[in-house]
Structure formats: C-alpha cells, structure tokens
Amino acid sequence: MAALRDKWVVAMTALAVLLILAFSWGSGVAHAGVVISGTRVIYQATEREVTVKLSNEGDAPALIQVWLDTGNPNAMPNETPVPFTLSPPLFRLDPKKGQSLRLIYTQEPLPQDKESLFWLNVLEVPPRTAATPDDPNALQLAFRSRIKLFFRPAGLAGDPNDAAAKVTWKFVRKDAGGYVLQASNPTPYHVTFSKIEAHAGAASYTSDKGGMVAPNASENFDVGPVSALPTGALTVDYGFINDYGAGMPGKFPAGK
Q1: Per-residue pLDDT at 22 exceeds 80
Q2: Quick one: DSSP state of residue 155?
Q3: pTM to 2 decimals?
Q4: Is 193 within 8 Å of 211 (Cβ atoms)?
Q5: End-to-end alpha carbon distance in the chain
C-alpha cells in the first residue's frame, strides 16, 4: 500500500510539473473554461469543512488537479505540508458541469491570534486535439488559477470588514533613497488593497497594483518616484477587497 501511495505521489507531482511548464510556456490566444466560484476562500475555524465550487463553462472536458501551498507559486503538490485535506485532488470535469471541492482542516496547530494565509491552486488541462494538415503543430495550453485561502480562528478581535479602516499610512524613506508609502495593519486580519491614491499638499501619488498587508505587519507601496518627503496633511483614497471578493472604497484618515 505504501509503495502504491508513493507511486501515486510521484505521478501527481510529475503531472503538475508538466502542466505548470505548459502553463508557463504557453502563448497566443486561449481561454480557461473552468471557473472558481469566488476570488477567495474564508475558512472559519468553527466550520467542520468548507466547500469550493468549480464549474466548466467551456465546450470540452478538462482534467483538473487541485492543491494548496503556503505562498510559493512554484511549489509542487505534496511538496509543501499544509494542515488541510483537499478532495478530490484530481478529476475530470465535463462541459457545463460542476464539481465541489471539500476542504477540511486537519487540526494541526495554527496561530490563534491572527489569520493564516494559504493558496488554492486549480490546474486545468484541456483534452488533446488531433493534429490537422492545416495546423500540425498546434500548441495546447494548461491554465492555473490561484486564489487566497484565509484560515480565520474563532474569537478574533474586531470585524474583518472594518480592518481596512484601521490601517494607518505614512511615507518612509527607502534604503536606496527616495520615499515609499507604508501601510501598517494593527488588526488580526489580512487586508487586500486593489488601488491606492495618496495626497499630500498639492501632490498626488498612485499605485494601481495595490497589494496585501498581513496582520500586525507593515507593507511598503511604490507610488511612483518620490525623491523628497511630501509635505502637507496626508490623505489616502483606497479600494479594498472584502470577504465576498467585492471592491469597497475607503479613506484615510477615516471621515475626511
């Protein structure tokens, strides 16, 4: 049984390597057919399990492989230990059909005073198409979707919907010279910003890329070349992503 399990792990890892390479090398126009219902997963510690729904909106069946990682996008399945089981790990999804993934916390210790972040990977491989005289070297693409999974312990202070409003902002000097906009998050929740626009005096500074600030941590945002410390009262208009994946507006300081 152990030998069979080891062979299965090796086979799944080899499959993921080949598929991620296909994903990385692919070019041209193509579209993923498999859709995840949501842009993030919130696993409340009080839940026995969480269900993530997939649907194949394409016109062809697809082979799907799913796994979790702790932040390394190049990690292979079974390479990074995670305190969850995810099933089924490999399956066929027919067109216009759905599949539910079962995610179960295995009770290994995780911090109880803040959220923990993991990533859900969904790799879609389309069926092989026969070569034709008109297109003998057709390139097939595999698609990987990767979304955040937040494990949220019970009894955390505050409301996650209010976390963005508690983040404080200031300009700080970079080691290489110049200044960046720094966000400090005093809450136990991850806060994801979709856009940032800072104003100091008559000057404005923007970051369209946004980013995430971990619990009880600070993150620097590049808002363009800032050679001198901006003067005047600092205000920040931002967009943040709530638990449902919706973009919400906010302002620092709150109420201004």
Answers
A1: no
A2: T
A3: 0.83
A4: yes
A5: 64
